[in-house]
Amino acid sequence: MENLYDVVIIGSGPAGLSAGLYAARAKMKTLILEKNKVGGQISTTNEVANYPGSIPNATGPSLTARMVEQVEEFGAERKKDTIKSVDFSEKIKVIKGEQGEYQAKAVIIAGGAEPKPIGCPGEIELTGKGVSYCATCDADFFTDLEVFVVGGGDSAVEEAIYLTKFARKVTIVHRRDELRAAKSIQEKAFKNPKIDFLWNTTITEIKGDGVVESVVFKNLVTNEVNEYNASEEDGTFGIFVFVGYKPLSDLYQGQITLDSVGYIPTDDNMKTNIAGVFAAGDIRVKSLRQVVTAVADGAIAAVQAEKYIEHNFEE
């Protein structure tokens, strides 16, 4: 059967690429499916400073490119396709995409997660017109302008620091009275003269005709509402949103167990509740979502998939 693979990996972020590398090295017929660009969230990261052994000035795209090289060196097949449905009810798993149908003895789900929106009026309409979820992608558009960064975790504060290379002023808008980012990251932000803070504050509306022109803030303690308008000289400003992620797991509703948020529970061997189906990376329930943990997940999933196939499929 031409479209029968030992392992089909859904997603080509660090977890999926790592799984592909280990699966292909084990001489399994391996297919990596990706609907968008390769690399997942890391492809939008400007600096990779906390990945052990990474070379100086390593970027998300450069690290991804090397991972892809390794995967292809060992013979894994990569295909761009949008998956429409999966059927994990039988021993041979079926994945149906826009470009074709794929069958697999084992499946590794590595679809990752996507940024959560604020959920306020005007956000969707002005996405790409001043509202962004990727500082690396869009920072240059706001050179010498003001920007607001929504969020208080590691990603929000790190991206705020990065944005100071371009914007003349960066204001972090956080719904609490203290940041949730790691202390070392917080210290950098507090020392940066270009960064200000709006505490206990949310955005209730984003306004503009073609571009972001104003934003409405609400103080959660006093309930005071203020509208900030772009200066006449600038005409616009940026709003960068980093308020968490949503797992890309809707496809698996009814096929495997998901938690209340949509993340996939696994054991330490990346096994889901369905035999032969594994999950790796940001899409699964875990305490730390970083490149280093994603690639570890992918390696474990591939090794476990190999063991599963050896025990359940006769030559």
Task: Explain how this protein is built.
This protein is an alpha/beta fold and 315 residues long. The chain folds into two domains: 4-115 and 245-312, FAD/NAD(P)-binding domain, CATH 3.50.50.60; 131-241, FAD/NAD(P)-binding domain (3-Layer(bba) Sandwich). It is built from six helices and 17 strands. It has helices at residues 14-25, 60-73, 135-138, 154-163, 183-191, 291-312, and strands at residues 4-10, 30-34, 77-80, 83-87, 93-97, 101-109, 113-115, 131-132, 146-150, 169-173, 195-198, 201-207, 214-219, 225-229, 238-241, 245-247, 277-279. Strands 1, 2, 3, 4, 5, 6 and 17 form a seven-stranded mixed sheet that branches. Strands 8-15-9-10-11 form a five-stranded parallel sheet. Strands 12-13-14 form a three-stranded antiparallel sheet, with no helix packed on it. Helix 1 (14-25) packs parallel to helix 2 (60-73), helix 1 runs parallel beside helix 6 (291-312) and helix 4 runs parallel beside helix 5 (183-191). The chain is elongated. Belongs to the class-II pyridine nucleotide-disulfide oxidoreductase family.
